[in-house]
UniProtKB/TrEMBL annotation:
The chain crosses the membrane at residues 12-32, 52-72, 79-99, 105-126, 138-162, 168-188, 215-238, 250-268, 280-300, 306-327, 339-364, 376-395. InterPro entries: MFS, MFS_dom, MFS_Efflux_Transporters, MFS_trans_sf. It comes from the Bacteria. Coiled coil: none annotated. It is a multi-pass membrane protein. Residues 14-400 form the Major facilitator superfamily (MFS) profile domain. This is Putative MFS family arabinose efflux permease. The lineage of its organism: Bacteria, Pseudomonadati, Bacteroidota, Cytophagia, Cytophagales. GO terms for molecular function: transmembrane transporter activity.
Amino acid sequence: MDKPGKFSSYQKLVILGLACLLFTVVLDYMLLPALSGILLYELQLTTQQFGLITSAYALSAGISALLASGYADRFERKSFLLVFYGGFLFGILLCALSPSFPFLLAARVLTGAFGGVMASICFAMVADLFPLSQRGRVTGWIQMAFAASLVIGLPLSLFIASSFSWQMAYGLILSLGILALLMVVVLIRPLGDSETGFSTPWVHIISNLKKPTYWIVYSANLLIVGGDVIFMTFNAAFLTNNLGLDDSQLPYVYGAVGLTSLLAAPIFGKLADSFGKWPIFAFGTLLSIGAVVVYTAGVIQSFEWIILMHVGLYMGINARMVSATALTTAVPKKSDRGAFLAIDSSIQQVAGGLAAALAGLVIFQTENGSLLYYPQIGWLMAILMLLSSALIFLVSNQVKVNSKSEES
């Protein structure tokens, strides 16, 4: 097992720049559902129209990520990143200026087309700049951007939206995004020449799709994302309608989730580098399954226990995500890395949409508002977690084989 080395000063600056950039992308992704009540009223939207606006981002992101995979390894990483992030910020500007449903729908399509590719580009850069022995910690630190969006960014954005206007909330993201853009321009050096030798982008895409070892990773991440989304889709409704929480208590639940992620991600990243990615993933799986099965059964209804179950569940989810992401970056060869991660991102976007639809087919709401069959959601998530664990075990073994062949 490789011993994790210390980060250089430059590596620390890279982590900071990428984390700040992803903070804005995640905040944008989470803000729209949180603005549902305001947008339905101010733009006079139907629930179907709002659902279309929400799904437009995921569909656009999935298509864009697949198309971008053919070009991801043909251009220098930093330049590729700046082009897509610039497009993302332009989409955010259109969101901030949106006066109507058609305008906002178009803005979300554009934002998804550029924003949906950002994570894959960032993690391709991580794989280029950091050895496998450091990637667990790098992933953990970058994952803190997701937690910070939940703990800091989302409450601040909602305060601005309720106190001033929802457009100003997008203005906040735009302002932070411009600062993040300048930070990346200044802090991160170009990563060298682009890869060469590709006949056409489509040939590059197809060559990546034909490799069985890559599909093990694609399938594992599909199950990981699918399981998480199936649980999250109706969690707020289950908390209020079945467990009796007030709407005013929900921010405390999600605040606890965000704080847990903020603290757990770097810790599990360090543990993954020290003790191995697969053992940490397995630990996270067992912890998550125990928490979700007990929680979705609905037998524990006190506020303190609900908080505790969410803390346990998201500790497990963070352990799984950090270790799986670190392993994922070690599978493709460098000439495939950008395309591989872009295709993986596309599949995850599609998986999230299908998982939300599947949750809607399983769950039914009674006349008094309570949800039926939510325990089945817990068991379904547990099954998907076990299946993904088996695939991640195969990925871990493949990474070990690749490491040995590179050493010999």
